[in-house]
Amino acid sequence: MRGFLLRRLGSALFVLFSLTLLTFVIARLAPGDPIMQMMGNRRDPVRYAALQQQYGLDQPLPVQYLQYVGGLLHGDLGMSFQYPGRPVTTILAAGLPVSLKLGLGALLLSTIVGVPLGIIAALRRNGPADRVITTLMLGLFSIPSFVLIGLLVWLDLTLYKAHWPSLPVAGLQQPASWVLPIFVLAASSMGYIARITRSSMIEVLGQDYIRTARSKGLSAAVILTRHGLRNALLPLLTVLGPSVAFLVTGAFVVEKLFNLPGIGNTTIQSIGQRDYPVIQATTILLGVAVLMMNLITDLLYSVFDPRIARQG
Amino acid sequence: MAVRSRVQLPAVGEAQASTPPSLWARLVRNSWALASLAFLIAVVVAATVGPSLYQNLASADIQPLRAPDYQDYTISGPAASWPSAVHWLGGDDLGRDTLARLLTGLRVSLAVALLVETINIVLGATLGLLAGTFGGWVDQVVSRLADMLFAFPGLLLAILVSAIFGTAAQNVAGDIGRLLLVSTALALVSWPLMARFVRGQTLSLRQRDFVQAAEAIGARQSHIMVRHILPNVVGLIITAATLDMASVVLNEAVLSLLGLGIQPPGSSLGLMINQAQPHLEQNWFQLAVPGLTLTLLVLAFSFLGDGIRDALDPTTR
What we know:
The complex is a heterodimer.
Chain A: H1 2-29, H2 34-38, H3 45-54, H4 61-73, H5 88-123, H6 128-142, H7 145-161, H8 179-205, H9 208-215, H10 220-232, H11 234-258, H12 263-272, H13 276-304, H14 306-311
Helix pairs in contact in A: 1-13, 5-6, 5-8, 5-11, 5-12, 5-13, 6-8, 7-8, 8-10, 8-11, 9-10, 11-12, 11-13, 12-13
Chain B: H1 2-7, H2 12-18, H3 23-29, H4 31-58, H5 98-134, H6 136-150, H7 156-206, H8 209-216, H9 221-257, H10 269-276, H11 285-312
């Protein structure tokens, strides 16, 4: 168990190192001189040197990288190029709550809808309920998020025009404003989770121990919860990581199209302004979020299925 | 009688019937895969010859469209227009013909998909094959490199790369530069997966008797790789590349949507979607055209990929 966890932690550290190194290298390879840009391309060697020193860009590259990582460890993500004197952390802090609510909301929604639907489909295999659920979930999984947004917003506007109850499609003032963005973001992972649950549940229900439990005369509910679900939900843990990765890409699209002030939109804005420290920071932040999710998954997995940790 | 004939040597006609159907025959028997293939061929033809043909057919030079006859639009200025005899799919809010833009946009999608899969096969499959065959430090280097790129969730690395080098690529080579950059960025995300697939398959093939036999008679590793392993991973490579095209087409649209792909005067499906979104209330059709096209394209690539996989390995069905 300890060896397993240590190895997982080791690989997480490697991933973290890769994230920081690659983002650093890419940002340094970026064409154009950020300081000249900051100074509006005026020639002023004295100010240039001062700014260069302030941002630490006068050091050799390996030193810059070490300083960058050192800063990261202290929670210091550097200064914005676009808004001189403004720490990147302040800029991120503005967008973080929005993205966090959006992402966690979508993760929760896709699980609490996807898992039960997957179970129902498995229990009613090849029946009409299964057909409907499977088709619906395949649709949700395959439809590109921006097409879904278009469809839902159009429906919503049609309802609104007909003076029927409808959801707000812009702004975040009311709680109801979150419904559409969260649903769209959740859609593809909801389909994914339902499909995994269904196939894993079908596999488990075909196992010998289920037949044994049945022949013992246990009630269907006990078989389902104690023998079925417990084993069927394990593979679901492994898809949590990929689901979060889906959400990260999806969040960019959803935040952009619903015009929400989250991390995704902050990144897109910084891209337009060539504000590399902010771009670097958001990349690392999102990477770390997925990394944490994967670590938690591994931990849970080894708790729920001790064989994994023993085999390593 | 039937039993006896099965025991006897089969006649010529029977022998032909009993040989397993060819790969093509098995693929064609799958109606979803066949329909997808037909659709994709139609799309490729339309994207290749469509733009020049349509200009001649519909209107020599696409006329600026007038504002639609709309009673209740809230945004001032010309909004998108509806299909007509001259403009078969209507026009966008700037008065550009939608079908003409769609056809050019499809060119972008297909070109990017083709470029990415080329890189995927040349780089990803080769590295996976080398790593699986030679093992040792080759495997270590390839696997760690792939792990590093896997550190970035989803499209994040592609977003980062196309964002930072976008302007430079545009300045050097215009739209072509953007296209190459977007393809490279997307390939950066997808080659590690290809390498991992091929490496895994290679490792399992190495345990098979025919490879062990080749090793036993003293064949060189490079010979084993090219003559014994490669022919057996080609199917996997083709399947993986076709399935990956579905995500590449989608991801290219996401990059365009975020403003990181082909830039506004040009056209791509993602850009069309981004542009039609604000005018959804006045004209949903202009969003439906690129949206539906993209969805169909993604579905067609996935069905075709699934079909190829099933045709190559009938036991998976």
